[in-house]
Design brief:
The chain has a domain of about 220 residues: 3-Layer(bba) Sandwich (FAD/NAD(P)-binding domain). Helix content is about 30%, strand content about 30%. The protein is built from 10 helices and 18 strands. Helix 1 packs parallel to helix 3 and helix 1 runs parallel beside helix 6. The chain starts with a strand and ends with a helix. Bound molecules: flavin-adenine dinucleotide. Flavin-adenine dinucleotide binds next to helix 1, strand 3, strand 9, strand 12 and strand 16.
């Protein structure tokens, strides 16, 4: 068996890479270790309006549960600020359906897919990745390829075999737990976010509406002796709602890894740390970088140059598209990390009742005036003001 490109991992980064490589007319095999694409879900399923545009997919009721217009941010002491959108800002997806629809789209353009197949090793010849060794239903198989895309999720073990450093320190990973629940009292088009050391230390808690009283209630935390599940159970004990699904998982929030390519291999999505460091959102970034990965891989095949010198183009392109945003987001996250519950209370109370149309529209001058009255807040926010 021989392919132009093998993609390891069949979720958003993998399917997007496969889709755009196949659209560019090269032979692609996508390998997924699970028996079904899209399960188990490890996601709160919120994504921006731009994701479907990046993927060239039409919005569909098959995988969109609700349209999102904004968010309500809750301070530790119960103040609320509403961030309003003037138009649709995004969607809450049904990721089981969305990930599968994306894989189906890729297959329609010619991608071959193997499920329940675990990639265990890479074939490396003269220092260049040239295929994979995988286990499929108890049988070990070798599949050759001109190059490989690693889209195997957080801390990619595959990219590490090729010599790239994909490890994160525990303080740079959101540890998450989430219930999908029935009977949740939440606005159908607004996400609810809760902050505070008693609710979600080092992170935040979310309630994302999926329609008809169904919602994802989950949280991500860092640096806590207790587990994310402990905080989740504590929060939901106050809700009159019942769970129908539990998911747990980790999200890398320290920004992208330094090098995302080597001879014969590209790494993409969570595997490359391409996640927004404030929110932990990785669907749109995985789609944007997956598209670039697939297109650059196809170009490498056509020009018969899969060397790291050529594949650097992938890193240059994704950095040009989302690199600056990720850098700014990391800077903001580091400033938010320093805020105490008291700082958050002051900040959110200050904006309560004011019209905020996007996070970017928060007037820095008002923030500055507020911070000047609160020396601690000024000190902690000085890098972003
Ligand atoms: C609880 C939680 C909530 C989240 N909520 C949101 C949200 O609301 N919005 C948002 O944008 N992002 C969210 N994220 C992040 C988002 O889910 C990820 O950024 C995104 O799914 C990354 O996609 P990916 O394809 O890079 O990796 P993954 O989704 O991790 O997919 C990797 C795939 O590779 C497969 N695989 C791994 N190793 C191998 C192997 N050796 N051989 C074959 N297959 C392999 C895995 O089975 C998996 O299917 C959340 C994450 C968590 C954990």
């Amino acid at each position: 068996m021989k392919y132009d490109v093998i993609v390891i991992g069949g979720r958003v980064a993998g399917s997007t890479s496969s889709l755009f490589a196949s659209k560019s007319d090269v032979d692609v095999l996508m390998i997924e270790k699970r028996q079904e694409i899209g399960t188990p879900v490890q996601c709160a399923e919120a994504t921006s309006y731009g994701t479907l545009k990046t993927l060239e997919m039409e919005p569909s009721k098959k995988y969109i549960c609700t349209e999102i217009f904004g968010a309500v941010i809750n301070s530790p002491d119960g103040h609320k600020v509403r961030v309003n959108g003037e138009r649709i800002q995004g969607y809450i997806l049904e990721r089981k359906m969305f990930d599968k629809a994306l894989a189906i789209e890729s297959a329609k353009f010619g991608t071959d897919i193997m499920v329940k197949t675990l990639v265990k090793d890479l074939i490396i010849k003269n220092g260049e990745v040239k295929g994979v060794v995988a286990k499929h239903l108890g049988e070990t198989i070798e599949i050759k390829a001109d190059m490989v895309i690693a889209a195997d999720g957080v801390e990619s073990s595959i990219a590490r075999i090729a010599g790239l450093n994909t490890l994160n320190s525990p303080k740079d990973v959101f540890s998450c737990a989430q219930y999908e629940m029935v009977g949740v009292d939440v606005h159908p088009n607004y996400m609810e976010l809760y902050f505070g050391s008693e609710i979600a230390p080092g992170g935040y808690l979310w309630i994302f509406p999926k329609g008809n009283g169904v919602a994802n209630v989950g949280l991500g935390i860092r640096s806590s002796k207790e587990t994310a599940y402990h905080y989740l159970k504590k929060f939901v004990s106050n809700l009159d709602a019942t769970p129908v699904e539990l998911n747990v998982g980790g999200v890398p929030i320290s920004g992208p890894i330094d090098k995302t390519y080597t001879d014969g291999l590209i790494v993409v999505g969570d595997a490359a740390g391409q996640v927004d460091p404030i929110t932990g959102a990785g669907i749109h970034t995985s789609a944007a970088c997956g598209r670039i990965a697939g297109e650059v891989a196809a170009e490498a095949i056509k020009t018969e140059d899969t060397s790291s010198r050529f594949l650097k183009k992938y890193q240059d392109l994704w950095k040009a598209e989302i690199g600056e945003n990720l850098k700014i987001s990391l800077k903001y996250r580091k400033a938010i990390d320093k805020l105490s519950d008291k700082d958050l209370n002051v900040l959110i109370e200050f904006f309560q009742g004011k019209d905020i149309f996007s996070m970017e529209s928060i007037p820095k001058i008002s923030l500055f005036k507020l911070a000047k009255k609160q020396p601690n807040l000024l000190k902690n926010l000085k890098d972003v003001l």
